[in-house]
Design goal:
Helices cover about 55% and strands about 5% of the residues. With about 300 residues, it is mainly alpha-helical. The protein folds into two domains: about 100 residues, DNA polymerase, domain 1 (Orthogonal Bundle); about 170 residues, Intergrase catalytic core (hpI Integrase, Chain A). The chain has a three-stranded antiparallel β-sheet, with no helix packed on it. About 30% of the residues are buried. The C terminus is likely disordered.
Length: about 300
């Protein structure tokens, strides 16, 4: 474990100098703890670390079966720690700068059809009452706006503009973006917020849009559970999560004719390469386009 004073200073560096989200900061601290635990087991001090020892640590992660995506995240955390130690004068050279992020395989995300999403929304509302309406609104907003689950849980009234039809989303790294609200999302939100049985917010929770039964901002776990339950009731056998609706949102936009730059802005991706994963347009539609437009097919 990091000494408490260095841990506090490193956390401040991540939050205020690198402008990373709270979740990323916690993940990076955990990554550094993994490295320090390994070094301790090998009897090595941090200031003694060199590139070959770091390579051995990364190889150990691969041997444990940790995915390339997780290894990449761990390397990012360790490199940030190395830069911090160098800036603060704890080390004279930074061996972590030589670490290379492993190439990640591209996997096509699970997506839902509009018909499947409609079935899930109906199932989510089958509980009836304010909870059923809240669940309908949650799923509709996830799909209509392509939000991350953390963005949905932290949605507040100052960021909700129902009359104008858009949301202001507080995304990763405290970056904001504006996302249009569909008519369906406005309808479901309006019904939920107008319900007289909506939970009374606890002190300090008054601004949150989606509340638990106890009047607190709804948690990520609650959203995961309600979606899994609704999907099972709807007879959906795909393995889904809140992020599935974000994938489905992007895919629906692409298949509807939206360009990648527009989708990138809506999702809040910094890199267009992240958005390009959604170019997996349905093969049957692609074939129809080729048959219709390719000159060799015009006979």
């Amino acid at each position: 474990m990091l000494p408490s004073d260095i841990r506090t200073q490193f956390l401040s560096y991540l939050r205020f100098e690198l402008n990373l989200s709270a979740n990323t900061c916690e993940a990076y601290l955990s990554d550094v703890d993994k490295l320090l635990s390994y070094l301790d087991s090998e009897g090595i001090q941090m200031e003694e670390v060199d590139y070959p020892r770091l390579q051995h640590f990364i190889a150990t992660l691969h041997d444990l079966g940790i995915s390339p995506t997780s290894v990449s995240r761990i390397i990012s955390g360790i490199r940030s720690f190395g830069r911090y130690l160098l800036l603060e004068g704890y080390i004279e050279t930074d061996p972590t700068a030589l670490l290379e992020v492993p190439r990640k395989g591209r996997y096509l995300p699970t997506v839902l059809t509009t018909e499947e999403i409609d079935r899930i929304i109906e199932s989510a509302g089958s509980k009836g009452g304010v909870e059923g309406q809240r669940n309908r609104a949650i799923i509709e907003v996830l799909f209509s706006c392509g939000l991350r689950v953390s963005e949905l849980c932290h949605l507040t009234f100052p960021d909700l503009f129902l009359d104008e039809g858009y949301l202001r989303v507080q995304g990763k790294g405290s970056k904001q973006r504006l996302v249009p609200l569909s008519e369906a999302a406005v309808h479901e939100l309006t019904r939920y917020l107008a319900d007289p049985d909506r939970a009374t917010p606890r002190r300090g929770q008054e601004n949150y849009v989606f509340l638990s039964r106890l009047g607190k901002a709804i948690s990520r776990i609650t959203v995961f559970v309600l979606i899994r339950e609704a999907a099972q009731m709807a007879g959906i056998t795909k393995t889904i999560s809140p992020h599935t609706f974000r994938h489905s949102f992007a895919t629906a936009l692409l298949e509807g004719g939206a360009n990648l730059q527009a989708i990138q802005l809506m999702l809040g991706h910094e890199d267009i390469a992240t958005t390009e994963i959604y170019t997996h347009i349905d093969r049957s539609k692609l074939r129809e386009q080729i048959e219709h437009f390719h000159p060799r097919n015009r006979r």
